[in-house]
Design a protein that fits this description.
It is a single chain. This protein is an alpha+beta fold. It folds into two domains: 10-59 and 299-429, no CATH class; 74-285, no CATH class. It is 55% helix and 19% strand. The chain contains 15 helices and 13 strands. The strands form two sheets. The protein has a six-stranded mixed β-barrel. The chain has a three-stranded mixed β-sheet with strand order 2-11-10, with no helix packed on it. Helix 2 packs across helix 13, helix 2 packs antiparallel against helix 14 and helix 11 (292-335) packs parallel to helix 14.
Length: 430
């Protein structure tokens, strides 16, 4: 049986849809604008969010997903009375001890390495220039564990540790602040009152606030890394501070312990065992346990929720565009009532009329989605250049934005298409 002339195949339906869209160029353009801006917003917001997430997760990964970091902290309930504050021999004692380190080594299974770190807040001098800094006495394994690879010079070696050499690694920012213009390698800097030789230069740190909290550092702190043995021999564990006419002496035997678990599955077990070991001898809560793996998982959950919220917000503009599609298609159905009547009289089914109008809305969604993709990429480049933010355009952002665009177009055009398909042929011809 021959197919009715009014019944078109898929290819003819698409050609007819594009022909009808070209017939009303201004109306089509105005309808497309809503989809273009909507898709562009989704692309830009998802890409900026993905870039921020990747950068933050990289910062947390710098702490090591197999590491458990234990910091000595001043207990919140520790106070000094007036008599003790006036006593020049008064020394605050809190935090981790060498006995704690030995107990953890003996009692905690699943640890490959246990590293001690000595933190000394002091001034760094170069000639008459000085700068407040945090001096970290670390073993060579700590340097490699946290990826402290010098871009100039060498790193700290086992020989430096064994001989307690007065050598150091510094950040480029510290050299800039001190006004160092000459070759930094071999340069002599005074850490406190003691000369140290620069053997390596590290890139500037870009710590996130969570990383700063995990490493017990202040924002903008300048780091200087020296061998742990040299730190203990030169500075010891007694810290003297003088502020506003008052002095403070603090003795912390071990400022930080870094336990490296044998595998990522052992990290939480190691953290629980260390907490159990330390809880018996530290009633004042003068230690803090940081598990980077838990921070990483928590941040990933937070970012997933944030991404969903951003998509929902950006989709509002797509919904507005969908309302515009529905409005235009209703007007189109009204204008083309006679055409629908003629096609129905010539044998077209309701499904053919429905397919015709739905194809037009899908075409609007596809064209608007593709143009919106280009608009979003251009807007994203402008955002990155203006703000310096990091952005990542992944396949997920493209698929989500295009999928939402097509879905909104179909849903918006469904009612007008059904209305056109249900027109009575006789009434339509009148």
């Amino acid at each position: 049986m021959a197919k009715p002339l009014a019944v078109a195949n898929a290819g003819e339906t698409f050609l007819l849809a594009f022909r009808n869209l070209r017939r009303n160029k201004l109306r089509t353009l105005l309808t497309l604008l809503g989809m273009i801006f909507g898709v562009g917003s989704v692309i830009a917001m998802l890409s900026v969010g993905a870039g921020a997430q990747a950068e933050l997760l990289d910062r947390i990964r710098e702490l090591g997903v197999q590491n458990v970091i234990v910091n000595s902290v001043r207990p919140p309930q520790q106070t000094r009375d007036e008599k003790s504050s006036q006593d020049s021999d008064w020394i605050d004692r809190f935090g981790l001890t060498d006995a704690d380190r030995l107990r953890i080594e003996r009692l905690c299974p699943g640890i490959d390495q246990l590293l001690s770190v000595n933190l000394v807040p002091d001034r760094v001098w170069h000639g008459s220039s000085r700068l407040d800094a945090t001096i970290l006495g670390v073993p060579p394994a700590y340097v490699s564990l946290f990826g402290l690879v010098p871009t100039l010079g060498r790193t700290l070696s086992e020989l430096d540790e064994a001989s307690a050499s007065s050598v150091c690694l510094v950040r480029r920012s510290l050299l800039r602040k001190l006004g160092v213009l000459e070759e930094p390698l071999g340069l002599s800097l005074k850490l406190g009152n003691f000369p140290f030789q620069v053997v390596g230069v590290l890139e500037d740190s870009n710590y996130h606030e969570q990383t700063l909290a995990a490493l017990n550092l202040e924002a903008g702190a300048h780091e200087v890394f020296i061998p742990h043995a040299a730190s203990m021999r030169t500075f010891g564990n007694l810290v003297y501070k003088e502020r506003g006419g008052t002095s403070e002496r603090t003795r912390i035997e071990v400022d930080r312990l870094v336990a490296v678990a044998s595998s990522a599955d052992q990290v939480r077990t190691v953290a629980r065992v260390i907490d159990a070991i330390l809880s018996h001898g530290h009633e004042q809560e003068d230690y803090q346990i940081v598990v980077p793996l838990s921070l990483l998982e928590q941040q990933e959950r937070t970012q997933r929720v944030f991404s969903v919220v951003m998509v929902l917000i950006a989709s509002i503009s797509l919904v507005v565009g969908g309302i515009g599609i529905a409005n235009i298609m209703l007007a189109t159905v009204t204008e083309r009532t006679r055409e629908v009547g003629i096609r129905r009289a010539m044998g077209a089914r309701r499904s053919d009329i429905l397919a015709q109008f739905l194809t037009e809305t899908v075409a609007i969604g596809l064209i608007g989605g593709l143009l919106g993709l280009g608009f979003g990429m251009a807007a994203l480049q402008g955002i990155v250049r203006t703000t310096g933010w990091k952005a990542e355009v992944g396949p997920t952002a493209i698929m989500v934005s295009m999928g939402i665009s097509c879905a909104v177009a179909v849903i918006s055009g469904l009612y007008p298409a059904r209305r056109g398909a249900r027109l009575d042929p006789i009434q339509a011809l009148r």
